[in-house]
Amino acid sequence: MKQTGTVLVTGGCGFIGSNFIRFLFERTGFSGNVVNLDKLTYAGRPENVADIQSEYCDRYHFLCGDIADRAFVENIFHKFEIRIVVHFAAESHVDRSISGSAPFMETNILGTWTLLEAARMAWGDHADPETFRFHHVSTDEVFGQLMGDDPGFTETTPYDPRSPYSASKASSDHLVRAWYHTYGLPVTISNCSNNYGPYQFPEKLIPVVILNALNKKPIPIYGDGKNIRDWLYVEDHCEAICRILESGIPGETYNIGGNCELANIDLVHAICGIMDELSPVAVNSAFGSYRELISFVTDRPGHDRRYAMDTGKIQRELNWEAVTGIEDGLTRTVEWYMKNQNWVNAVRS
Ligand SMILES: NC(=O)c1ccc[n+]([C@@H]2O[C@H](COP(=O)([O-])OP(=O)(O)OC[C@H]3O[C@@H](n4cnc5c(N)ncnc54)[C@H](O)[C@@H]3O)[C@@H](O)[C@H]2O)c1
Question: Tell me: the pLDDT tens digits for 222-246?
């Protein structure tokens, strides 16, 4: 990304946001500043950006705060002359949205509305898209579920969210589009499939599998394990967002995915196979392979059966496609969790 100026990243202490800030500084020609606004919920970890904080201290500013705090957010736009927003901040875990949906509504809906209004106040109506951009990061879950061999979701698939999480993200997508049509706010939206990679909080499937296996604990799989997700290595997602910031058309939505559909049970077997290679179980152990730790548990209510993304638009229009193969991405992820036990202990404490 060639843009200079100041980028406001929301949720930059979370999994994807922290990877994005690192990617921006280290893997693109970006020469501007980053303001990271994060509330530091249980999922927001200062450890995730500790290296950025020390390496880029003159170009990186961390602010602890809530995206739904209007006065605080408006002041950030004013003080740092924000020109680009990359909006990751969200409550992101479906299971938590089922047991308590309030923070999902507050952050994902009201927080997004607050950011949109703050951007509009700072940039004015019909802001110049060459200068300003509001990029909203969303999910494939807004489209509902696919069955059997249904074709993948496209950018025009009707919304059909089925969990409090996906309903709150769908609401936020609608708000972002409305601010484009009504006020001419230069927005782009991306809807992405499941990400994996370093720094993912150990409540999501892949880190749970790796860490339970390392600790010889049962590896839980919902239902029959045949729910299908499309998996994308997090750095590929970061690259796609940079491509959209650089060349995406204001008002447009882009689907992002890894073209890598896997049933949960097959994904878990793949991870166990990698772990059997990288960290073989001791010969005198009670089990011979991490696969033997797999344990089926009661299914999540309303568990979507299958997601798949048609990424033709971003491939054709922005020349982006995922480049990290699943075996390579999973191996890098397993190695990262094995080498970063201090991080695991810190986020779990
Ligand atoms: N993880 C995935 O597989 C995936 C896939 C598609 C889309 N997304 C979307 O990408 C974004 C980032 O996901 P993630 O997996 O990195 O999530 P995450 O839960 O790891 O991180 C979310 C971050 O937002 C911060 N945050 C939460 N509420 C806040 C508030 N009110 N104000 C300021 N900061 C707040 C948290 O502290 C945390 O740092 C989300 O919008 C999510 O919907 C995620």
Answer: 999 999 999 999 999 999 999 999 9
- What is the dihedral angle through the alpha carbons of 334, 340, 342, 345, rounded to the nearest 10 degrees? -20
Query: Of all atoms in ligand 1, which is nearest to the CA of residue 201?
Result: 20
Write the residue with the smallest CA distance to atom 21 of ligand 1: 14
At 181, the amino acid letter reads H
107 lines ligand 1 (CB under 6 A): yes
Residues in contact with 56: Cβ distance below 8 Å, sequence separation at least 6, in sequence order: 25, 34
112 Cβ below 6 A of ligand 1 = no
Q: Whose CA is nearest to atom 22 of ligand 1?
A: 14
Length, in residues, of the chain: 349
Tokens of 75: 């002041």
Q: Which atom belonging to ligand 1 lies closest to the Cα atom of 87?
A: 41
CA nearest 10: which of 50, 40, 28, 37? 37
Q: Ligand 1, atom 12: nearest CA belongs to which residue?
A: 88
How far apart are the C-alpha atoms of 191 and 142, rounded to whole Å? 8
Give the residue, by CA position, lying nearest to ligand 1 atom 15: 15
Gap between the Cα atoms of 84 and 20, Å rounded: 14
Rounded CA-CA distance 306/266 in Å is 14
Instruction: Report pLDDT digits (tens) over 5-49.
Output: 799 999 999 999 999 999 999 999 999 999 999 999 999 999 999
Amino acid letter for position 320:
W
Contact 301, 146 (CB under 8 A): no
Cα(141) to centroid(ligand 1), Å? 14
Span 96-109, pLDDT tens digits: 999 999 999 999 99
Domains and CATH numbers, the chain: 6-200+232-259+303-324 (3.40.50.720)
Cβ atoms 219, 293 nearer than 8 A: yes
Measured in Å, how far apart are the chain's first and last C-alpha atoms? Answer: 36
| 19 C-alpha to ligand 1 centroid (Å) | 12
Sign (positive or negative) of CA dihedral 80, 86, 87, 89: negative
**Catalytic center residues:** 140-141, 165
Q: How far, in Å, is the centroid of ligand 1 from the Cα of 92?
A: 5
